[in-house]
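Researcher: We're teaching a course module on how sequence relates to structure. For the next exercise, students receive a sequence and then see the predicted structure as tokens, so they can try to spot secondary structure elements on their own. Here is the exercise chain.
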Amino acid sequence: MLLAPVLVPVTVNAEGASPLAPFLLRPGDVTGFVPGKVRVFRTASAVRSAGGEKLAKSEVRRYESEGFVEAAMVRLHDQAELSAQGISSVLDFATPGGANAEMRAELEEDRHPQSTRIEGMPSYLIVRHFKVPGVPKAVGVAFVTNRAADRVGLKAGIAKGLFTEGDCLFTIGIFRPTSKNVIEPVAHGIQAVSGRPANPCL
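Model: And here is the predicted structure for the students to work with:
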């Protein structure tokens, strides 16, 4: 799912700084959102889901088969909307093929979520796919509340943007439980990290 596996690590990070860390979001990159502490993971099995659970064995095997090397991640918090949250991550693989394979796998999961409908209730979510100006490789997917939700006073959104450069997969994700404005901050985040020099993934 959009902000599930590979997005919110909760275990203690590995010792030592990561060359990937400078390619995470920084203060000021996305208006209103402030990054927290950088986490670094050097094995696929060390990564945790958004809820703190271990990855499924099939996901760990997928990362390992793709040549997982290292991941650097940071959680984002919205200063105005305290319940909003986000993530910035960089996953390094042994080859560009591994990064591209993981991007395809994540997009496949996000484009076919288990359900956007509660049994016996109308669906309040619509899917939107988006591009990021200036970053032709980037692909984005979002779920935002629809007009039916508007009529009952519900507004929410969740979005994720991804792109690859060399051996790495870059991801920005935003969730807002009281606002639909999720695509724009994700796009701004992608633009911010894509233009940084001295990329270690190339």
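Model: If you want an answer key for the exercise: The helical segments are 57-65, 96-111, 147-151, 183-194. Residues 21-194 form a domain with the Protein Transport Mog1p; Chain A fold (CATH 3.40.1000.70).
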